[in-house]
Design goal:
The structure is a homodimer.
Chain A lengths: L10 H14 L12 H8 L3 H13 L3 E4 L3 E4 L3 H10 L1 H7 L4 E11 L3 H7 L7 E10 L2 E11 L16 H7 L5 E12 L2 H7 L6 E11 L4 E10 L5 E6 L7
Antiparallel strand pairs in A: 1-2, 3-4, 4-5, 5-8, 6-7, 7-8
Helix pairs in contact in A: 1-3, 2-3
The structure holds a DNA duplex.
Chain lengths: ~250, ~250
DNA sequence: CAGTGGTCTAGACCACCTA
DNA sequence: AGGTGGTCTAGACCACTGC
C-alpha cells in the first residue's frame, strides 16, 4: 500500500485511514505495537512530521495510545465503537429489536440562516437543502432531526424520497459524497411549543439537543445537523479509557 | 513578552498559553483576528510549524476559529467536556485554562445504598466514602458531583481535604489506584428543589445528568459517580471518525 | 495581486525507556 | 547504548480569500 500524492486528501489523513483500516481489519491487534515513526517514515516515504500528524489524529480519536520511550500501541476499540454507537439512532433501535420509521415534515431548497451558512462554510446567499424529520421507535416519536446541506453539493436532493431513503446512503450512492468524520456538541434543553406538540410531551420537558457538522475527508462540510431527543425515552451510554499523562 | 527556550514547557504550549491569556484578559476580543502565522513566527522568533501547533491546540479546545484564506479569530468561549477521555472535572477545567474551585458539602464513611453497593460490586455491609461537592467555574456553580468509593480501597480518604484536592489526583498519588476506564450514562432532566437551590437556577431548569462507574485496569470498580450539570453553562463535545447517524 | 492558513520536507536535538 | 516519541527548524508549495 502506498499513498497518493496527487490527491486532495492530505497525506497524513491517508496514512491515518490506512492505519485505522489495519486496526479494524485485525491486521493490527489490540495492544499491539504499531511501527515506529521512523519506520513509517521510511515505509511510506514521507517526513516524520507528517507521520506524527497522522498518529496525533488517531490518538485524539482514541484509537492509539502512546507510551513514551516505548512505542505507540493500538488502544481498546471500545471507545470508538461506543462513540459511534452513541450517534447511531437507527442502529441502536434495531439492536434493541425495535421497529423504527421516519415521518418527513419538511424538504426544500432555501436560503440558510447566518448560523447554518457559517457552520457549512458557505456564503450566506448560497442555497441549502433543509430536511426535517420526525423519527419513531415503534409508534412513539423519539426525536426531531434537522439536516442542512449545501445545495450545490447535492442538486435535486429536495426532490428525493426522504421518508424511506437513508440520507447518508443517498449522499454516498447518488452524489458520491463519502462522509468521513463529524463533530458533535450535546446539551440539555426544555421542549418548546413546536417540539412538545410533535413529540407529544409537555412544554419544557427535558430534552437532549445534539448539534454538529459532518465532513468529507478533505474537511469540506457536507451537513449541519441538529437532533432533539426525548430525554424520558432515550439515554446515551459510552465508555472511556483514561489517557496516559504526557508532557505538561 | 518572549518565550523561554530553556524551559521544560514546549514553546508551542507557551505560545498557546500566552494567546489564551491575551484572550481572557480581553487584549484579544471575541471575534477579533489574531496575528497571522507569519506574524507570530517573526514576533516570537519560532518556526511556522511551532506556531501552528500552538494554534491547533487552541483550535481543538474551541478558543480559536479558523476561516481559510482570511485569518484566525477568537471564538466565543464555552465550557466543553471531551467525551473521548476520562478526566476529572478539575483536570478538564485546568486544561481549558479556567479557574475552578470546589465547595465540600458532604464527606463521610457510611453504609452504601443497595444501588451503590451493586454498582461498586461490594457487599451491602461494606462501608463507602461518600463525597458531595459543588463545583465552580470562576464564581459560577456549574455542577453537583456525588462520588462513592469502597472504604477499604482508600482508607482515610474521609479525612482528606477534598475542597482543594482533585479526587483523581489523590487516588493516583496517595492510594496508587490507577484509574483505567469508565462507563457513562447520560440523560437530560430538570433541576429539583435541592439542585436548583445549590446551583442558583429555577426548579425544572434543564440539566445534564451523567452517572457511571470508574474502574482499575483489572476491572475492579473504584468509584460510582453522579454529576448534575447546568445545561446553560456546560456543553459536551466529541468527534467521530465516521458519522453513522442515519445508517439504515 | 498579496495575504492567509494547510500541508509537507528533511533534517536536528532532547527526554524517556529498555536492556 | 540504542530505540522511541516529543519538539523544533527554516524553508517550500498549494488553495483559498479579498482587493
Amino acid at each position: 500500500m502506498h499513498l497518493r500524492r496527487d490527491d486532495p486528501i492530505p497525506l497524513y489523513h491517508q496514512l491515518a485511514e490506512e492505519l485505522r483500516e489495519q486496526i479494524e481489519s485485525g491486521q493490527l491487534e489490540i495492544g499491539e505495537r504499531i511501527p515506529s515513526v521512523m519506520a513509517l517514515t521510511k515505509q511510506y516515504r514521507i517526513s516524520p512530521m507528517t507521520v506524527r500528524q497522522a498518529l496525533g489524529e488517531l490518538q485524539r480519536k482514541g484509537l492509539l495510545e502512546v507510551r513514551r520511550g516505548i512505542g505507540t500501541f493500538v488502544a481498546s476499540p471500545k471507545i470508538t465503537y461506543n462513540l459511534l454507537h452513541l450517534t447511531s439512532f437507527t442502529e441502536d433501535m434495531v439492536s434493541q429489536g425495535l421497529v423504527t420509521h421516519n415521518r418527513l415534515i419538511h424538504l426544500a431548497l432555501e436560503m440558510p440562516t447566518e448560523y447554518v451558512a457559517k457552520q457549512l462554510k458557505i456564503p450566506p446567499d448560497e442555497q441549502v437543502v433543509r430536511i426535517e424529520r420526525l423519527r419513531y421507535s415503534g409508534d412513539v416519536p423519539i426525536l426531531i432531526d434537522y439536516s442542512y446541506l449545501p445545495g450545490f453539493l447535492c442538486p435535486g436532493l429536495e426532490n428525493e424520497d426522504m421518508e424511506t431513503n437513508s440520507l447518508y446512503a443517498l449522499l454516498e450512492g447518488r452524489y458520491r459524497l463519502a462522509l468521513d468524520h463529524a463533530t458533535h456538541c450535546l446539551e440539555a434543553t426544555g421542549a418548546n411549543d413546536y417540539e412538545a406538540k410533535l413529540l407529544g410531551v409537555p412544554v419544557g420537558a427535558p430534552m437532549v439537543l445534539v448539534r454538529g457538522v459532518a465532513y468529507l475527508a478533505d474537511n469540506r462540510p457536507v451537513e449541519h445537523f441538529k437532533s432533539i431527543y426525548r430525554a424520558d425515552r432515550y439515554k446515551f451510554r459510552w465508555e472511556t479509557a483514561r489517557p496516559l499523562r504526557h508532557t505538561p
